[in-house]
Amino acid sequence: MEKAKLFELIKEKIPKNISFIDEIADVLDISYDASYRRIKGKTVLTLKEGLSLSSYFNINLNDVSVDRKNHPEKIIVEKSHNLVSDNFLHTFFDKSKEEITKIISSKNGQIYNCVKDFPFYHADNGSLKKFRIYLFINMLSKDPNLKKIPFSKFEPSYDIIEKYNFFLKQYGNVSLVEIWNDSTIDNIINQIQYFFDVGLTTKEEALSIADGLIDSLKLIEEQAKNNKRIESKESFHLYQNNLISLLNTIFMKSDTEKKVFVPFTNLTYFKVIDKNTTNQIEQHLKTQLEFSTNLTGESSVERNKFFNSMYQKIEKRKLKLNF
Question: What is the crossing angle of helices 88-105 and 127-140, to 10°?
Fold first, then answer.
């Protein structure tokens, strides 16, 4: 029964134009006939093969258990990163590439983001981009010497820059729905202030980073106005919600699967693929949108009010930095 359930769940994740038997054969590195015999129950599917299939197709083993109906409250989650180290950003970008590829290649792929903090995939082409890398390396590194490097002497590696650029490009090519509140940019404004206060950025650098944040917001505003991404023809929807707490929860939906990422530390997430849970999250997001103000397309008055308040926050902080 468990084997039949496993194959049933795998079949749901495979596009209809791809041979189910061939796909199983490729994953297990066996012949077409051997794959057919396993699917039909003529040959035993070994535990190792079952685990290989569940891992490759991102199958929640809880869903395979025939006892699942007796314990619907129990789910299996995985961490997006096993260990936070000085190579953390490399791991983050590699994992992000892996997760978003299926969304981009899906005809109806889409990402929902409940934006408590200014997203890492929004940046400019100058000081802000460099600052965001500097920020996470400084805050997450265990090397005390790295924490003392001033922004002016910080030179991210070519590899990190390339991975970040690719990360930004990937997110620029996906259909995106974002829910913000009035304090979404407060955290990054406070980060700019903090590194200036501790002497790791100069006044000129801090002001330049703040200007980069303004430039990034203008790009987001333009996307909201046009209802589409600047880098592609994919859709962009922006909402404002001050009624429900936003937790930086990310919901990804492709043609074959849904997954949810719930943050537990900086840029690290609990990944949930449990079908019942992801369906509940999707419904919760739809409810959130019902209580949100649409800032997209023809909603020019509400959109202008929202972004003007953001720009005013930054300008006030720039005045503080100038004293």
Answer: 120
User: For residue range 146-193, what is the model confidence (pLDDT) as tens digits?
Assistant: 889 999 999 999 999 999 999 999 999 999 999 999 999 999 999 999
Of the CA atoms within 13 Å of residue 228, those in its CB half-sphere come to: 6
Sheet holding 268-272, edge to edge: 77-79, 268-272, 258-265, 250-253, 110-114, 175-180, 236-240, 293-294
Write out the two tokens for 198: 């501790």
Q: Which residue do the tokens 């066996």 mark?
A: 30
Model pTM score = 0.80
In whole angstroms, what is the distance from residue 162 CA to residue 187 CA? 26
Residues 6+ apart with CB under 8 A from 272: 75, 77, 259, 260, 261, 262, 278, 281
Residue 105: pLDDT band with limits 50, 70, 90: confident
